[in-house]
Amino acid sequence: MGQPWVVNAWLAALTVALVYRLGSDVFNRDTGVLAAALTAFSRWHCSSTGH
Questions:
Q1: Which stretches of the chain drop beneath a pLDDT of 70?
Q2: How many angstroms separate the CA atoms of 9 and 11, rounded?
Q3: C-beta separation of 31 from 23 below 8 A
Q4: CA 20, CA 34: separation in Å to the nearest integer?
């Protein structure tokens, strides 16, 4: 790849997907969607992944 921002973007997307999966498995689909959306748009997640 050669470009660190690509790795950060993939890891950020993977994190959101894992949060969705965890929320869906533990609670229900709506909770998974809400948790993933909150993760994707949280200030901490965006700043730590370089968005």
A1: 1-2, 48-51
A2: 5
A3: yes
A4: 8
